[in-house]
UniProtKB/TrEMBL annotation:
<dbReference type="Pfam" id="PF05659">
    <property type="entry name" value="RPW8"/>
</dbReference>
<dbReference type="InterPro" id="IPR032675">
    <property type="entry name" value="LRR_dom_sf"/>
</dbReference>
<feature type="domain" description="RPW8">
    <location>
        <begin position="1"/>
        <end position="147"/>
    </location>
</feature>
<comment type="similarity">
    <text>Belongs to the disease resistance NB-LRR family.</text>
</comment>
<dbReference type="InterPro" id="IPR036388">
    <property type="entry name" value="WH-like_DNA-bd_sf"/>
</dbReference>
<dbReference type="InterPro" id="IPR027417">
    <property type="entry name" value="P-loop_NTPase"/>
</dbReference>
<protein>
    <recommendedName>
        <fullName>RPW8 domain-containing protein</fullName>
    </recommendedName>
</protein>
<keyword id="KW-0067">ATP-binding</keyword>
<keyword id="KW-0677">Repeat</keyword>
<keyword id="KW-0611">Plant defense</keyword>
<dbReference type="Pfam" id="PF00931">
    <property type="entry name" value="NB-ARC"/>
</dbReference>
<dbReference type="GO" id="GO:0006952">
    <property type="term" value="P:defense response"/>
</dbReference>
<dbReference type="Pfam" id="PF23598">
    <property type="entry name" value="LRR_14"/>
</dbReference>
<dbReference type="InterPro" id="IPR002182">
    <property type="entry name" value="NB-ARC"/>
</dbReference>
<dbReference type="InterPro" id="IPR008808">
    <property type="entry name" value="Powdery_mildew-R_dom"/>
</dbReference>
<dbReference type="InterPro" id="IPR042197">
    <property type="entry name" value="Apaf_helical"/>
</dbReference>
<dbReference type="GO" id="GO:0043531">
    <property type="term" value="F:ADP binding"/>
</dbReference>
């Protein structure tokens, strides 16, 4: 609302200032300068005013402050215009007041406008990252048959195409991998005909087939087809629905994409008056709904809009709605052999050195399913002939638990993961603990594996890479990530739903109370009844994973988990009560709370934290962290805390809690996208055990505590994408153990501490996109351990003198990277 008032006032102010310029000689210079400032500001205010977007409260308050000053400027301009020419004192007084207002507006623009712009950019990133996150799991891409060049043609996601990004390349299976299958080409032409046919009967078209058969591959090939893109004028939207969709959110999103009409306000469904508006742009629209599991969900997504067509990708046919369906066929012998050879030998045919008969026998056991061919082929790569023979025999002995081809596939693939070493196999099975079609934060995964399987961090990451190389998961990373100082926040993991089904299938072979992992496979409104029937018995599970909606204290029942070491709570709710059985988990080491809702969750029943004496890792995502009471019980063993997309100000504002007493052994603190964070509590500086602090994308964080130099154990400090920070405290120069400093994307950082050269252990600095830096301290030539600086071209020139004094220093000019894939949903 303040943007409306600010826009009206600014427009009126310009008119009044023109009168002053024309009529009042003594006020003319001040009025002209003020007019130039308001003229520059007016288009921005008007754009915000007419955008129709409701701004967050803190941005509304900043614009309210601007509106108040513009009102004052308007009042001054009117007084100046009405002031008699002979009253020199009055005119000079008004001129001075206008000059002060001009300086205030200039400071406001300089201080707040970059943060507003960056916030808008990051909101765009979040939006399109969420859209990209719903793109089909990557392993299906191996069944594509179009040429590799065609796979590079972009699919429009919303109105923004993606092409050539790291995400796209990994989706396409990497360089050199060619799609196979005559059936894909035939199916593509048939589905294209259905989509471009006229009439209501062709409004909903389906692609069906068992998991891993290449359904999504075919759908993507169709979306990339030039004829389809031309027919729909690039208005093609791709959404993954999954077994547990947030249906109302998905409906709103699709409606906004299809019609171009934004649904404003706190609606959880599309208002009727909006439904009557219809689309802004006429013409055909294609929506691809991937991984649809329920007819009721599909029916909710059928909008009655002229030209609106849906391509439903599912394991089921839904004949009552989908009148035109293409059932995908499994690969024939030749295509299956080609795909298998690519996975096993990295070529399209059997090499001369391999046993052709044995290879063909293994391929035959894969039953023509692309995913099985790829996974089993990768597991046999570089193995000796006896290993192949053993694999063939084990595959042949796979017994089906029913007549379903898919269950046979799970049995065959279960025998395949039997070839993994013990800990690698257990780590693969742990992946089933995370919800389908969601990104898995790498930090959560690594911490879990380290605690569960007694692994070093390097060994846990090596297992991750091994599983990725065997096509059992897909590892994504940001374009800037990759060296030893990279944050795990820059990585994430996804897994094909059939591979997740495989992990669940193997986990569930044991009796319920004896399972090592107790998992809710999809989101439910209540705990499984099978759990309730066995609640009086102790559960042997080491991992407990719960996927639910809002849970009140009365929705839980008591359970006993004497061996549980990891608890993963995924939910979508505005309020959430922690389960009372946390008190029955004396060995709990890792606690993960991830809210998939649209706003931060208020937590209840926090008293259970007092029992978590062995907790070592805590991950909170999209949680409103409550104020910390003075009586907070120390978490003596907590080593890692990660706060992502959380609301923190209420917990930190006026807090008297000594964090060094509450978290005496904390070594790693991560704060990401907590946009209400304005400053850190000074008591953080008393935690002498802190080795790594990572603060990123906190737009309102304006300063670090002056006592930062007391963190004597700190080795890694990341303060990136925090545009409100203008300087670093001088005390950081006392961090004798600091090895890595990341201040990238600190757009308003104007200087570095003069005594920077005292950081004698510093090995690397990342300072890309620090556009306000004009000098570097002279003492930087004393950084003898410094080996690598990453910066922009202008800043690189400032390091020339230091390069002459530091023999091993390498100054790298960063490439510009405009990538939307790096954010977690």
């Amino acid at each position: 609302m303040e943007t409306f008032f600010a826009g009206e006032i600014a427009t009126e102010l310009v008119k009044e200032l023109l009168k002053v310029v024309r009529r009042t000689y003594l006020c003319r210079p001040a009025a002209e300068q003020l007019k130039r400032s308001v003229d520059a500001l007016l288009p921005i205010v008007q754009e915000i005013r007419h955008s129709g977007v409701e701004l967050p409260q803190h941005r509304q308050s900043q614009l309210s402050e601007l509106a108040d000053q513009l009102r004052l400027a308007l009042d001054l301009a009117r007084k100046a215009a009405a002031s008699p020419r002979w009253n020199v004192y009055r005119s000079m007084q008004l001129a001075h007041r206008m000059e002060r207002l001009d300086r205030w507006i200039s400071r406001w623009v300089e201080r707040h406008m970059p943060a507003h712009v960056l916030a808008d950019v990051h909101h765009l990133r979040v939006d399109y990252s969420a859209r990209l996150d719903r793109i089909e799991r990557t392993l299906d891409m191996t069944a594509a048959s179009a040429a590799l060049a065609a796979a590079r043609v972009p699919v429009a996601v919303g109105s923004v195409p993606f092409s050539g990004s790291p995400l796209t390349e990994m989706m396409d299976g990497g360089e050199g991998e060619k799609p196979v299958g005559v059936g894909i080409r035939v199916g593509k032409e048939r589905v294209k005909e259905m989509l471009m046919a006229g009439g209501d009967r062709a409004a909903v078209v389906g692609i069906s087939g068992i998991g891993g058969s290449g359904k999504t591959t075919l759908a993507k090939e169709i979306c990339r087809d030039p004829q389809i893109r031309s027919y729909f004028n690039d208005k093609i939207y791709f959404e993954t629905v999954s077994q547990s969709p947030n249906l109302e959110s998905l409906k709103l999103k699709l409606w906004e994409q299809i019609t171009g009409n934004m649904v404003l306000g706190a609606y959880n469904q599309i208002p009727q008056w909006q439904m009557e508006l219809g689309p802004r742009d006429k013409g055909p629209v294609l929506v691809v709904l991937d991984d649809v599991w329920a007819l009721a969900v599909l029916e909710e997504l059928l909008f009655r809009i002229p030209g609106y067509k849906i391509l439903v990708v599912s394991r089921f046919k839904f004949p009552s709605v989908v009148k035109n369906n293409y059932e995908i066929e499994l690969l024939g012998e030749e295509d299956a052999l080609s795909l298998f050879c690519h996975a096993a030998f990295e070529q399209q045919s059997i090499p001369f050195t391999a046993d052709k008969k044995l290879v063909k026998q293994v391929v035959e056991e894969c039953k023509g399913l692309p995913l099985a061919l790829k996974v089993i082929g990768a597991s046999l790569r570089d193995q000796p002939p006896k290993f192949w023979a053993r694999a063939k025999n084990r595959l042949a002995r796979g017994e089906a638990i029913c007549d379903s081809h898919e269950n046979k596939l799970l049995e065959h693939m279960a025998s395949t993961i039997g070839f993994l070493s013990g800990k690698v196999r257990e780590c693969f099975l742990d992946l089933g603990s995370f919800p389908e079609d969601k990104r898995i934060p790498l930090d959560v995964l690594i911490n879990m594996w380290m605690e569960l399987h007694d692994l070093d961090e390097e060994d846990a990451f090596a297992i991750l890479v091994e599983l990725s190389n065997k096509n059992l998961l897909t590892l994504f990373k940001d374009a800037q990530a990759g060296d030893i100082y990279s944050s795990y926040m820059e990585f994430f993991v996804t897994q094909h739903d059939v591979l997740r089904d495989l992990a669940l299938h193997v986990n569930n072979c044991e009796p319920l109370t004896s399972r090592r992992r107790l998992i809710m496979p999809r989101r439910e409104n209540e705990l499984p009844r099978e759990w309730e029937r066995n609640k009086d018995e102790p559960f042997e599970a080491q991992i407990v994973s719960i996927n639910s909606g809002e849970m009140k204290e009365s929705d839980w029942f008591q359970m006993h988990f004497p061996k549980a070491e990891v608890l993963i709570l995924n939910f979508s709710a505005d309020q959430y009560s922690l389960p009372p059985f946390l008190s029955t988990m004396p060995k709990l080491k890792v606690l993960v709370l991830i809210n998939h809702g649209t706003s931060c969750t208020l937590m209840q029943n926090l008293s259970v934290f007092t029992t978590l004496n062995n907790l070592r890792s805590l991950w909170l995502e999209k949680i409103a962290v409550p104020p910390l009471p003075k009586t907070t019980v120390p978490l003596q063993n907590l080593r890692k805390v990660s706060l992502v997309l959380c609301e923190l100000n209420n917990s930190l504002r006026g807090s008297k809690v000594d964090l060094s007493m509450t978290l005496p052994r904390l070594s790693h603190l991560t704060i990401d996208h907590c946009i209400d964070l304005t400053k850190l509590p000074s008591s953080i500086c008393n935690i002498g055990s802190l080795q790594c602090i990572s603060i990123s994308n906190c737009h309102d964080l304006s300063e670090l505590p002056g006592e930062f130099g007391k963190l004597s154990s700190l080795e890694i400090l990341r303060v990136y994408a925090c545009p409100s920070i203008k300087r670093l405290p001088q005390s950081i120069c006392r961090l004798k153990r600091l090895k890595y400093l990341d201040i990238s994307q600190s757009f308003n950082l104007r200087e570095l501490p003069e005594e920077l050269g005292h950081l004698t252990s510093l090995e690397k600095i990342d300072m890309r996109e620090c556009s306000q830096l004009r000098t570097i301290p002279r003492s930087s030539s004393s950084l003898k351990s410094l080996g690598h600086v990453i910066c922009d071209e202008e800043v690189a020139l400032l390091w020339k003198e230091a390069e002459r004094c530091i023999p091993d220093l390498r100054v790298q000019v960063a490439e510009e990277c405009f990538n939307l894939d790096w954010l977690v949903e």
